[in-house]
Design brief:
- The protein is mainly alpha-helical.
- Among the domains are: 185 residues, no CATH class; 77 residues.
- The chain has 28 helices and no strands.
- Helix 2 packs across helix 18 and helix 21 crosses helix 22.
- The protein starts with a helix and ends with a helix.
Amino acid sequence: MIDHDGKQDAVALSVRQSKLRGVVCAVACFVLGLIALYSSGIGLIDPKLHRALGFALALLVAVLVSRVSDNSQDPVPRVTALNLVIDLALLVLGLWAIWSFYFVQNEMETALYDISTKDAIPALAGLVVFLELCRRLWGWGLFCVGTFGVLYLLFGENLPGILAHTGFSLKEVAEALWYNTNKGVFGSITNIVLSTVFIFIIFGVLLEGTGAGDTLLKFAFLATRRTRGGPAHAAILASSMFGTMSGSTVANIVGTGTFTIPMIKKRGFSPTFAAGIEATASSGGQIMPPIMGAAALVMADLTGVGYLNIIVAALLPALFYYFSLFCAVTVESRRQGIEPQVLTIDDQITRVDLINSILFIGPIITVIATLIAGYSTSAAGFYAVVVLLALCLINPEVRRDPLRVWRSFLKGSESGAKLLIAIAAIGILVGALDSTGVGLKLADLIGAIRGESLFSALLVAMVGALILGMGMPTLPAYLIIILVMGPAIQALGISMLTAHMFVFYYGVASSLTPPVAIAAYAAAPIAGANPLMTAFMSFRLGMAKFVIPFVFAFYPTILIIEEFELFAFISIVCRTCFCIWLFSSALSMFDRRRLSVVETVLRFVAAFAALAMSPAIYLPAIFTGILLVLFDHHKAASVNQ
């Protein structure tokens, strides 16, 4: 009886602790969200205070949400106490380090102040705390990235070749990675996230929470009801709209895949194909304007190109990518003999759906209108949130449960807090690379390897980008790749915007690249498919994402805002569309009928040759491709007769 009572007391204590953690986390998220709203649309906050306060609240949220708890029926007090001690130590050390940053920055503003060895102790403690929280929240990938930055500064002088540097003392490491507002943990990337990205993260989660996501999904099914692919095409359309809001491949898969994957399977597609197309479509949401999962905001700040210019430049490549997915589904549905199905009553758009569509249209128009009016990007996000909060009451679901808006606001702030922890690891890498100049050395190395071939240099950059981005969320992957590979790619003679777009695409594509392929591993369990087979299916379906960056690297006219020339633009758009169709059918070895090995090889060759710079190559390739398509139609017609 005593033992039973002891268990009940332990469970009751665990419940009380869980409630307390929930309340404290909610308060921290609420304050963090208020700071984002205030700084983006109402007034400025002192930069050093903004960064210190933002990281302090993010630290508290991260400790609470990443806490390791024992969920067994017989909790062991010793383990629970140990976890509590570790978390309190992380919190105290982290706050001490953040306070030290704020104190030193104040001293630097008011007097000449040299960072001492004594200041290095809290800085190093802060690095350890944020790296541990990064490991808990984001896994070993980002943890290793940040740890490499610290160890590289401390011991990199002993490395061979271009990796060697002159050496850094503990004081210099602290100065480079902690007490620096241009690079390091509290550097410019942190400022971009706090001042611009954070409000759009909240905006995206609020869009989902207020019902805009459900309405978009229904419109997607209606728009694709007459296509062979049906729900597979709907998944592509829905994921492009849903993903641009969420900015997370996994969140996109969970948000749309739980509904679309079962319907794709029901239509007759295999579980592996259902999971693969959802994973591929979801990963593309981050390249789809207008929001692009907040990456466009960071790109605009890093390149100095306006946000509107970024989304204009990103539009056509994104449409190419989704066109390739539509082609892949069409070919697969032909191969399996799947026909369009009649629209059911449940699929039809109701009056409520039409009203709820305003929840998406209104805020997006607000973002574009405020930017055109000359307001800052962060102000556009602020007004979009205000408009969304004003409109959300038109949704009957929100009126029945108003607290869903509150929960979405807190969820958005929590997502922003987690992102800040990831940005701390990115900042460490930035500080290390900037302090040692290894990025410029890598640019020289790639320049030496490439010789006279731009294609081979871009190929090396592509492989490096895919390796660096594997297993990373989109925004951290993009930042790591552009920091490491950016100088090297720009040294090839292409513009800054093209270089950023190039590495961003491969940052997104890395989520589809085996063996990691986090998108495939998220979608496979929903479909009941093999994760590794799903990864290879996603890789095949998303193959266009690996080709499109080369297209705009060689033909920057398709980015519209750079070197635009009408004839060249029309030429490459038509050739790219034709190339995508040849490519998709060759990958499936099917068009109107099963293709022979010779036809498949010829289609691959014609597809790639159609993108060549010289008319002497691409004109014969297009002619060959047209002959191959006509031959296939003729043979298919003969069989049907």
